[in-house]
Write a structure and sequence with these properties.
Number of strands: 13
CATH architecture of the largest domain: 3-Layer(aba) Sandwich
Shape: globular
Radius of gyration: 20 Å
Distance between the termini: 49 Å
CATH class of the largest domain: Alpha Beta
CATH topology of the largest domain: Aspartate Aminotransferase, domain 2
CATH superfamily of the largest domain: Type I PLP-dependent aspartate aminotransferase-like (Major domain)
Helix content: 40-55%
Strand content: 15-25%
Number of domains: 2
Number of helices: 14
Strand order of the largest sheet: 2-8-7-6-5-3-4
Amino acid sequence: MSVCPSIKSLKPYQGGKPISELQRELGLDNIVKLASNENPLGVGPKALAAMQKAVYEIDRYPDGNGFELKQAISKHLNVYPNSITLGNGSNDLLELIARAYVCKADDEVIFSEFAFVVYPLVTQAIGAKAVVTPANEFGHNLEAMLSAVNDNTKLIFIANPNNPTGTLLDDNAIQDFLSRVPKSIIVVLDQAYFEYLDTSDNAIAWLKEFDNLVITRTFSKAYGLAGLRVGYSISSEKIADYLNRIRQPFNVNHIAQMAATAALGDDSHLARSIIANKNGLSQLSQGFDKLGLSYIQSFANFIAVKVDNAENIYKKLLEEGFIVRPVEMKNYLRVSVGTSRENDDFLNALKLVI
């Protein structure tokens, strides 16, 4: 029995260490997880109420077309429902897009150095060729990405804000980039952290200009629904039709659909989450400054800080009950924004171990 070579050599995605795992390993009672870019305020009251109601309906299959959630997203973003594809988290959409548009072994997928780890995983899983362009100060170098385009290029991934660096591309730069990419190439603008930006939603308007653009977003971050796994993409109706042909019929469960629909109507919780994140980024940045540590300015809900021997510091922090995330940049740790108390306690622990 043989398996595809690309699968055989594939290393599975490793999420942030679960709290329960660290409890088993070290027997700690008080653990703070700052590893997976989750909303420290948790789920909002409207989404929670919707989930509690939906629990009594889980004997039925979910709406495979996600009518109510698509209507809510349509109204929220002023887009047509037929341009929306729902996913089991936005990761699901990234894979669906790759499966739909990358067909041959010599097809190429372009993404940046220091970008979301799912891009290379998806590319390898479908047996395509990954083209990794060098980063520019830990962010996307759009000119380098354009230079990498050739006749074999089928897909380009851009994360904005970027994970794990937190860097941000200017809207004008992205729009100029899109105008120069051949229309035969799909460009995915991964906006998992968009809600944390203090900016206009210009990307949605670009969909009218660029038929090859797909925007992906999620309810896992600012909306606090990471455990439910629900995301969506917006694209041309043609692309959405193809994606909906290959997605699993019930890829977003009923509770997730109801919670996400309610979350879109909870402006107060979203506003509190955005403010808490802004304050948390400032708190962590000031703390790192006091410790004499350099870091990458972040526009998301995490911050990458440079330390000596990051792997060793990571392990020492685990012993203190703090879970952060080692990342591919040498001697950097990615720290999610927590509550004010969690951020303060983390900084005190970091001071002890550096």
